[in-house]
Design a protein that fits this description.
homodimer; about 375 residues; alpha/beta; Dehydroquinate synthase-like, alpha domain; 6-stranded parallel beta sheet; two-stranded antiparallel sheet
Chain lengths: ~375, ~375
């Protein structure tokens, strides 16, 4: 096992009706800015439930945080924080709203040009406003981690930052709040969580036995519950398991003490930035290609994955590895997420453009061995057509 | 899945040489009381390493915290805290030292009679001194939870308390620090961690799929690594996995959202209080009896345990359940921990005395269904002879 430091202070409030408890989690005299997206939380009653819980608090609202939240929009919220002396933020939505709120929390008290938070990937963050979240979409894990991804439209750049100051103080996970999600968001959420787990698991063995078992347990649960979430949207048990898996997939625990990859995410971010695909769509396209192109480096873990996650025991090593990659692709397709660039109308002329972007953003040595150079990324993209 | 609230703020510093980092984790102007046990940390160099890291801090020492730490001893440390204006504690040792330090941390600033902390099981605790730990014995999970057990010799009482104020601020887990442990302590630690997991897993199904997979992953790892820890004491990988399993076995995660049992611990505590057996010895005796006597209530989870943890697929339900219980007992024996009261020279005349103690401490409705009445405890004890 590799050495590690691990800490995660976020309080999780899990279950039906837990929104009622948030009034006890936000200091009574706070001036609270509630942040949300396109308004679905307004239509489905979640926002009303939040406002009811905070009826004794001073509350403001900021709406319009988009999927792949933009710097341009978030800076308007930062201005609103300053104008109204806001001292607590509450994100109500999915990963994009929570990610955006993390950026607002850090940028509002940042000593310097806020864009540098992203350029420096969080290194310069020394403080942030406290914030909580009410999660409505199980997917990104943002509700229990300290990372966020923000897009600057004007630069076609999608950059991530990490800082221990942007852990949510609390997050409410009420599985019922996911009942009204469109199927596409459930599909995307399952794929996103699946790929988060794989990026921390399918590297090379370091004898992290617990991390491996936990990752496998999360993957098995997604494989069991994901399709059911599409078939029977109002199954509380299915949604509960999905929600808890997505949170644990990226809260730091399964990645502590093991190598991590993240090449799929980095290449995928460029596809979203350039062509506007959903984040999970890019992952479903890129992951099978990364596993194929990097098969030899990942051999031992791929064989373990084949056996423990997919029950593949027949065939020689090559056959078992290929079968596991095929099963992975089939699972994404079963979840209604297409796995080829061509499925999204993107052809091979995209490749030089995407490689240019990867280079412009310094993504020239990806993967657990930092050996996914632009040449290897090119192969991965060619394999994804 | 059941509703739950979960939070665990403890920072884990895991790996070789991590003791060097504690100087950054304790405020520079703190007056630190280092607490430890019988002196093994002095002999094996761990204490020197701690003192070296804290060479710029003001440091005091309190030694002599015994296995099953006593109220009588801990109150002497509380006095030392007051006399020397201590404002940070650092436990160096195993679960007993850390448990004892939690009590010192709470009692030193408790408004009232400190014994009430235990009588009220922590309900009255409103604050505590901050403290960290350097773990030398993987077993109890105390290094990453908010519970402690303290014995009052004069009353032959062993009581537990829980409070969110007594999470360690940080805990150092350096697997090399376990190399010099006597085999008996490794054996006990593996059994203790195993039973912690089982008490949160082998109840009745609530469809907590992640919790089940995590618990099974921890059990499988203990079964694989436990015997190796006795055979090859200086195997870093084995000790790493053992250490991380024992911490995760009782840090709140696998128990969040599922029923819990704890009858084995409660009955076991009375045996330790009366006859002085090691904590893990009592668990190894009582757990197989609890599983046998409560077999029907635990049927579904016992069958799942049989299949996923022990690979038992042959035979009818009764046979598979019995085989799983036998495997459990065999594992404890393989770990050199005896599983019958008679192995420790305790006969059936002990039963009325132990039942009397259980009743005196209010332990009259144990187990996940609160239906382990004194009559059922009697059966469990008879089965343990």
């Amino acid at each position: 096992m590799l050495d590690f430091n691990f800490a995660n202070p976020t309080h999780i409030l899990f279950g039906k009706g837990k929104i009622a408890e948030i009034k006890n989690k936000i200091p009574a005299k706070s001036r609270v800015l509630i942040t949300y997206g396109g308004g679905s939380v307004k239509k489905n009653g979640t926002l009303d439930e939040v406002l009811a819980s905070l009826s004794d608090h001073t509350v403001f609202e900021f709406s319009g945080i988009e999927p792949n939240p933009t710097y341009e929009t978030l800076m308007k919220a930062v201005e609103m924080v300053h104008t109204n002396s806001i001292d607590f933020l509450l994100a109500v939505g999915g990963g994009s709203v929570i990610d955006g709120t993390k950026f607002i929390a850090a940028a509002a008290v940042f000593d310097g040009e806020p864009w540098d938070i992203l350029v420096q990937h969080g290194a310069g963050v020394r403080k942030a406003l406290p914030f909580g979240s009410v999660l409505t979409l199980p997917a990104t894990g943002s509700e229990m981690n300290s990372g966020a991804v923000v897009t600057r439209k004007s630069l076609q750049a999608k950059l991530a930052f990490l800082s221990p100051f942007v852990f949510p103080v609390f997050s409410v996970l009420d599985p019922e709040k996911t009942y009204t999600l469109p199927p596409r968001q459930i599909s995307n959420g399952v794929v996103d969580a699946f790929v988060h787990i794989v990026e921390q698991y399918l590297t090379y063995p370091v004898n992290g036995k617990v991390q491996d078992r936990f990752a496998e347990g999360l993957l098995l649960t997604l494989i069991e519950e994901g399709p059911k979430a599409l078939e029977t949207p109002q199954d509380y048990e299915v949604r509960s398991n999905l929600m808890w898996v997505a949170t644990l997939a990226l809260n730091g625990l399964i990645g502590a003490g093991v190598p991590q990859d993240w090449a799929t995410h980095m290449i995928g971010h460029e596809i979203t930035a350039r062509y506007g695909l959903d984040h999970a769509q890019t992952l479903a396209v890129i992951l099978p290609s990364v596993l194929t192109v990097c098969k030899e480096h990942k051999r031992e873990k791929l064989l373990q994955y084949a056996e423990r996650v997919w029950g593949i025991k027949e065939g020689d090593r090559e056959q078992r590895m290929n079968a596991a990659i095929d099963k992975t692709r089939d699972f994404f397709e079963q979840m209604q997420v297409k796995t080829r660039l061509s499925d999204y109308g993107i052809g091979k002329d995209s490749i030089p453009l995407l490689l240019e972007q990867l280079q412009a953003h310094g993504m020239i040595a990806l993967g657990e061995h930092q050996d996914i150079t632009p040449d290897v990324s090119k192969k991965i993209l060619e394999y994804s057509l």
